[in-house]
Amino acid sequence: MKPPGARRLRPGVILFDLLSALLDSWSLWDDIAGGRALGRRWRMEYLKLTYAAGAYVRYRDLVADSAEAVGLPGRAAHELEARWAELAPWPGAGRVLRELAAEGRRLGVVTNCSEAMGQRAADLVDAPFEAVVTAESAGFYKPDARIYAAGAKAMNAAPDEVLFVAGSPFDVVGANAAGFAVVWHNPAGLRSPAAEATANAVFDDLRELATLLA
User: Fold this and answer.
1) H or E element: which one contains 152?
2) Strands (E), 44-161
3) Using CA atoms, how far apart are residues 125 and 123, in angstroms rounded to an integer?
């Protein structure tokens, strides 16, 4: 775990990336791809396409395009959608978030997916989210500053009142540029010197977030 930086982390509002920071979507993508190596290639291609998209285009199309780019059939996107309920929270995620809420923290989500899939995925975490902002509802994909701004607006908060819990290196950089304090929950073991240097803290177990904020 990278220790927190000089900026004191005592936020009243915490926004979370959903599909990497709170849910282990990596395992589902790997299973659909038939193995971890191809699943990771597919997911990283998807992240590259998504984070370059800017304005919202249909989420399923980005998933299908990234599948075809690494040699998988485009129908993998339909299988992902059909098996969406198999997404599982990272260990302890729901309990950690419920405890944070009990301490008076206000929780929300900013996620790169469709409205329907974002709402369904958020329900799997079993946490008291006040807002779930999706790329479809905001009209933009992360790391466009406007989706982060939509997240802060949905929580009636200024950027300097928000801590963002990122799940990917792109998210770390994007949320920081939007004016949020950022920590990176990185259980997938991704490497990014730029994100590691930017985040206030990096950890691989979400239960460390509570310790960080104590």
Assistant:
1) helix 145-154
2) 106-111, 129-134
3) 5
Q: pLDDT for 37-59, tens place per residue?
A: 999 999 999 988 998 899 999 99
Domain ranges for the chain: 13-24+87-213, 25-85
The residues pairing with 184 across neighbouring beta strands, listed in sequence order, are 166, 202
Q: Which two tokens stand for residue 53?
A: 């998209």
CATH classification for the domain delimited by 13-24+87-213, as one of 3.40.50.1000, 3.40.50.261, 3.40.50.360, 3.10.129.10: 3.40.50.1000
115-124 confidence digits (pLDDT tens): 999 999 999 9
Query: In whole angstroms, what is the distance from residue 201 CA to residue 95 CA?
Result: 21
Task: Give the burial string for 184-212 (b: 16+ CB within 10 Å, else e).
Answer: bbbbbebebeebeebbbbbbeebebbbee
